[in-house]
Amino acid sequence: MTAIVNVFLKEGVLDPQGKAAHHALDSLGFEGVKDVRIGKQIVLQLEADDKAKAEAEVKEMCETLLANTVIEDYTIEIK
Amino acid sequence: MKVAVLRFPGTNCEFDTQYAFEKLGHTTELVWHEKEALPSDIDLVVVPGGFSYGDYLRSGSIARFSPVMKAVKAYAEDGGKVLGICNGFQILTEAHMLPGALKRNNNLHFISKHQTLRVENSDNAFLNQCKPGEVLNIPIAHADGNYYIDDEGLADLEKNGQVLLRYCDAEGNRVVVNGSVTSIAGICNKEKNVFGLMPHPERALESILGSEDGIKMLKGFDA
């Protein structure tokens, strides 16, 4: 089973990398980009075969280590 | 006074920190991160600067789970004094021993220079040799020093006198250096025994190297 965790800075927390990329896209002439947010993707290969259990475990991993919930939000996708 | 200086894989300011406290007449002991206990006769724990665990995932996020950090947490909960400098500040926020978090600098650069700082609150075990409003000249060297805390958290910091230092110009007016909320450079916890700052007082001990204002700061712990 694979867990895909996406971690992004929370809405309202300024994302300096996203802002720089947005600025660069503007400079390159790409129009109509309203916002750019840069996050990170963490892919975990799990031994588990119970999807709900795996999701609960990955959630705990996010809360403990993978995300800093003071500034970041995360999403979990189990495949 | 005896000072425990922690050492993680990737720490690189431990010897400067030892030099600083020894110059002030104290004894120091390096404590490897795998140790589960701190030396019994210490008066202060310093979490020094560097790049613990290569700053992987987030600065300080992995070091906070080192065995020694459990002992540091217990030491602080018991009223012991803890100082985190630069990466040490990042580790203490990740460990939730200090509120808020440190993000990438808003200009995405590693900033390394001398920087003036304004003392905001000196009624604590750290900055008691300084006066509120006083301007200090201390080096900074970081990529992730952009302090973030939400509005409610900021109001608490202000109310409790937990803001220690802000980035300022030579006259003491706030300046934007790395994007920190209200230009915050250093804070302490509510109990005022855990301190964190991005600037490096241990690098400001000799006027020939640009400033000796660090002496005034570090002296406070022994006052």
- The tally of helices of chain A reads 2
Which spans of chain B have pLDDT < 50 for at least 5 consecutive residues?
none
Structural class by SSE content of chain A: alpha+beta
Structural class of chain B: alpha/beta
Strand order of the largest sheet of chain B: 2-1-3-4-11-10-9-6-7
Strand order of the largest sheet of chain A: 2-1-3
Radius of gyration of chain B: 16 Å
Helix content of chain B: 10-25%
Molecular structure report:
The complex is a heterodimer of chains A (79) and B (223). Chain A has one domain: Phosphoribosylformylglycinamidine synthase subunit PurS (Mth169, Chain: A, 2-Layer Sandwich). Chain A is elongated. Chain A is an alpha+beta fold and 79 residues long. Chain A has a 3-stranded antiparallel sheet with strand order 2-1-3, with helices on one face. By secondary structure, chain B is of the alpha/beta class. Chain B has one domain: Rossmann fold (3-Layer(aba) Sandwich). In chain B, strands 2-1-3-4-11-10-9-6-7 form a 9-stranded mixed sheet, sandwiched between helices. A two-stranded antiparallel sheet of chain B has the order 5-8. Chain B is globular, with a radius of gyration of 16 Å. In chain B, 52% of the residues are buried. The interface between A and B is medium-sized, with 12 and 19 residues.
